[in-house]
Amino acid sequence: MRADIPERGEAPGGSAGRVAGWLAAERERWALWLPVGIGAGVAGYFALPFEPDNAPGLIALAVALGLGCLGLRMLRAQGRGEALVICAFLIGAPAVGFSAAKYQSDAAAAPVILKRLGPVKVMGRIEMVEPALKGPRVTIAVYAIDRLEAAATPRRVRLRLRPRLLADGERDLVPGAGITILAMLLPPPGPAVPGGFDFARAAWFDGIGGVGFALRAPEIAPPGAPVPEGAGGPMEKFFTAVAGLRRQIFSRITGILPGASGGIAAALMTGERGAIPETTLEAVRAAGLAHLLAISGLHIGLVTGILFFGLRALLALIPRLALNWPIKKWAAGAALFGALAYLLLTGATVPTQRAFLMAALVLGAVMVDRAALNMRLVAFAAVAVLLFSPESLTGPSFQMSFAAVGALIAGYEVLRRPLSRLAGERGIGRRVLVYVAGVGLTTLIAGLATAPFALYHFNRFAVFGLAANLGAVPLTAFWIMPAATLAYLLMPFGLEAWALEPMGWGIDAVIAIADTIARQPGASFYVPTLPVWGLVLIALGGLWLILWRRPWRLAGLAGVAAGLASLAFVPPPDLLISGDGHTLAVRKADGTLVFAGGKGSKFQRQVWLRRSGLAAEQAPVRNRHRRRSSGLSALKDRGALSCDPLACVAHIRGRMVSVIHNPAAAREDCPQADLVIALTTLYRFPCRGPAHIITRLRLARAGTHAVWFADDGTIRVETVAGRRGRRPWTGPGGGRSR
Fold first, then answer.
1. What's the CA gap between 657 and 594, in Å, rounded?
2. What DSSP string describes 587-603?
3. Which of 3, 67, 231, 453 has a C-alpha 20 to 30 A away from that of 474?
4. CATH 2.40.50: does it fit domain 117-225?
């Protein structure tokens, strides 16, 4: 180490010198911050309220490159220049992430339907069939759509088919088959609430330019039928063939294992969860076992390990092979091929991509007789995912997957020695105790690491998750996944039932555990949504905690605590109204939501409840007919919300809100209300008096409105369009809501 860099444990005087010494002592961990910098650039791109040019990212990259070259030259010539290299990293890594996100967004550009269209005839090729109890969802590679020019035709659309439209069930819906269908098409929906999950953005990066539902039974042409010239390239045909294979495996599994056990088996082997009953899904979520159904590193690791150790053990039974050939490398190569096949068969989601990259590096290291560095594997996988799929950064799969793996590796870096000493002790009882402690510790670390992200995206916390996982994880690792791997191997011979039946027994045991835990009082509870800045604090604090090794890593706990405390500073909105005006909710003093009307979107109501930290839906307010001559004062004691055929009136924190359905209500309500939401035109009865007016046109353009009433009398309004900005996936107005 050079003289100008302090040795480990030494530092010049002052706080800055001490920090510099700590940084120098952790030089080998600097590279782990590369994906963090890239992720910051990706996050910056998606946070912008407008679509940027390519120039800022390229300029920043050029500046970083110049600083880096200058810093390296100074290091070689003078032994100084670390500051320039660090500046180059701080500028260059976010610039790479920003540019990657911009490039992928531009590459995904395709026509999008801008308004309701239909009935129209859609002609194309089936790319994917997602089975569901309410009817399959079909993704179609579009050839043509009636009344749309070729330049305005989406690349893909996704349609829901009701079971009554399928005379022969879903048997004819085969990926690769041609399809002609009469359907209603709509733009991909935006968030159900300001700041909520943006379905339209996800659809943009998936190349889906329209969603909708079928009106008639589809006309199906068999795979291999003539298609329009230029339709479907080699890669599309390959992935269509993989989707067809997934469909066949799904059908064979559910044909042997009916009910919930078959649905879960199909989810574990194909990634399709549509056949799992909602009651079973709810029990699994309440018990904290939902991660077992989402294909992730656990499943990839188990399949890879089973193939590697199983094949190596079989080859070791042949002395000539074991003594003269590198059977360990052969087993690693076969396991790598098996992991790739499992990745493709389960849909290649972000967690499986990350897990496959790590497994590939580990197995590759085995084949070239090298050791792998665990935390560097995570960093490499994160960089690869962020560069090729930057939009995944904003989703729960990426966040929870990398949080769990990073925390586990960091945790076992600290606990490796004490656990090794305990495992080295003799005695079956001690080994069983160490195993149980290891499962519990793994569950605890992974659960704590993923809890903030689960709370942000799903607003739910499983109280007894540790107990449930202690029973379910060993069953999954030692019974269910080995049986699933054997079923894959037996399917070409038609003997998969020999493995699927025992697999079903293990799944039934997991379902029993989930049901038992879910029935316990207080098994899970809901919390309001964390603000984005709170989640950022938690993420940065957690990264600081797991990426460094010296005691200063503990400062990251302060960031995590501050992020969790953000819940107290951002209360849920006092009033919500959807962009179409059909759904209205008012928060009462006790925190519950009261809904007006009954024809609004059920999905939207569920999202509003969940993001407010509420588990069950309150009954909608029925129309309470009132005489206009009685005035509005008579309604003040009727609760948070009262409605009649003309308007709904709410009293929130001493403020009055009127939601006008009929212009006749404007004359009486406008002079007294603090906020008026006009769902009709008010030409005959101009609205004079309120400080704030939200018109029907503004609702249609800006989407769902969230309103907060402060104690000082101010009214704050957020909209879907305001939070989304003007981006390629938002359309002209940016406010389309689900």
1. 14
2. E-TTS-EEEE-SSS-HH
3. 453
4. yes
